[in-house]
Amino acid sequence: MEVLNFVDGAFQTTAQVLENVAPGSGEKFGTIPRSGAAEVDKAMAAAKRAFPSWSKTPAAERAACLERLADAVQANAAMLAEAEAKDNGKPVSLAAHVDIPRAEKNLRFYASGIQHFASHSHAMEGEAINYTLRKPLGVVACISPWNLPLYLFTWKVAPALAAGNCVVAKPSELTPVTAYLLSTWIKDAGFPDGVFNVLHGLGPEVGEAMVTHPDIAAVSFTGGTVTGARIAGHVAPKFKKMSLELGGKNPAVIFEDADMEEALRTTLRSSFANQGQICLCGSRILVQRSIYDAFRDALVAKASKMVAGDPLDPSTKLGAVVSEAHMNKILSYIELAKEEGGQVLCGGERLRPAGVEGGFYVAPTVIEGLGPKCRTNQEEIFGPVVTLQPFDTEEEALALANDTAYGLAATLWTTDLKRAHRVAAGIESGIVWVNTWLLRDLRTPFGGVKASGLGREGGFDALEFFTEPQNICIKL
Ligand code: NAD
Predict the structure, then answer these.
(1) How many angstroms is it from 131 CA to the middle of ligand 1?
(2) pTM of whole model > 0.85?
(3) What is the pLDDT of residues 442-475, one digit of tens each?
(4) Of 53, 136, 168, 446, which is least packed with CB atoms within 10 Å of its CB?
């Protein structure tokens, strides 16, 4: 498949292209544009031209465009799920049940959300009345990662467009296909030319040109912490708004009074879903000592039974990781864990499933015997690799959970209500799940603290991010 840029309502090629590889097979299956500053200039100019009219278009009309785009996603859901599985390596069943329905939901959620969005008014006891206008920002850059490609792409562009901004968006160069497919329906959905532009290419080239462009009003970025820091270095000195959703090293804390079956079942999922490549996956599993051995043995038994296979096979539960380079990074972290004194209880190696031997597969890996300060327990691996650590007391559990530079999400397992509230409030993270994982209400604030990011997405938080408040004070 030849992926193309979508700029000012038309598809455009670039002088140079990049190869796109299917991680499930290791085979090349298409090309993507290698865009740079020239393409960004064109997209920015088109978006700037479109902004005065789009920003004044009634919210209901902007919402109707998003609804029609959502209709196209819904009508093409099976094709999109297959495309996502091929491009990313994730099981097609996961893409069909999670990624694509959620992409559709994101578009519909903000089509509705903008029509319920309200601003404040402050009365000054007979003297004056203040009201707040919330104005779209202008042209915004939306940059998304490869792990949940269409899901996270739409999570950004939907609130940005709903709020009346024009968008220059870039999916990850590793997983460009579903954003490209989405761009084929933008015109039919009724978006005027220039309102919604999609560029493809390498982060340090086209991404960097986007975030350093003088006309960009705000940057919404999801990706790694190192990239986030680099983007912040460009954007902060210009006092532009930015939202940064970054990495994690999330704890799953399992107390002895937990519902063991449920905790095990869900921890298996929170460890290895999407091959462990979800920023919300729990990679540090902390287990109370009295149940440590039993929990470890049961988790290892379940993880060892997971079978990797062709992402395009509907029965596959464990697919490939996103690229050869990423697979090698994960494997090198497993070697590091061994050097640091960890014992690999299961997995620890590349897999070559029959029929897709050239793909990039890593066995679900559980490691124990490592202290909290080692690199394995401090750095984000972003693959199917988890560590186990025992703890004795609630205080110790909390100290271990918080002993990281990151603070995205945490999971607690306990049937003691008081403990659940106490420990949840003590955890330094943007999200805490109690007796569940990845249960998402799109109205809630989503994001991390510490090195996991800046700002919140979701609900009205995203609409607030993509608008500028202006106080109007009228003397009575
Ligand atoms: P990445 O930082 O390498 O890339 C993310 C995006 O940024 C890509 O589109 C990339 O092309 C672009 N990019 C790279 N360098 C750039 C630059 N200098 N300027 C502008 N854009 C640039 O991240 P990734 O490897 O694609 O994604 C994995 C990371 O994303 C993990 O750390 C994961 O935890 C994180 N993530 C976070 C969340 C969250 O909500 N907090 C969600 C998903 C993934």
Answers:
(1) 38
(2) yes
(3) 999 999 999 999 999 999 999 999 999 999 999 9
(4) 53
